[in-house]
Amino acid sequence: xxxxxxxxNPYLMFRIHNYFHNKGVQCxxxxxxxxxxxxxxxxxxxxxxxxxxTKHFHLKPATTLAMAS
Length: 69
Known about the structure:
The chain is α+β, with helices and mostly antiparallel strands. Helix content is 49%, strand content 17%. The protein has helices at 10-22, 43-56, 62-68, and strands at 3-6, 27-30, 35-38. It has a three-stranded antiparallel β-sheet, with helices on one face. The model has no long low-confidence stretch (mean pLDDT 86).
């Protein structure tokens, strides 16, 4: 499975890339440093990594934001 995270802030994308790289995940910066793609993940890894990622960067999942609207 491949996951892509998009953001318009290149500094934040470098931080996100380093976060996943330090976790040992195969990742790559794409599209002028506005996307990070994560490779070779299974479903369980994706769920755990995204939960840790959102907690680390103090983010809320998009599904939570959609329900609040």
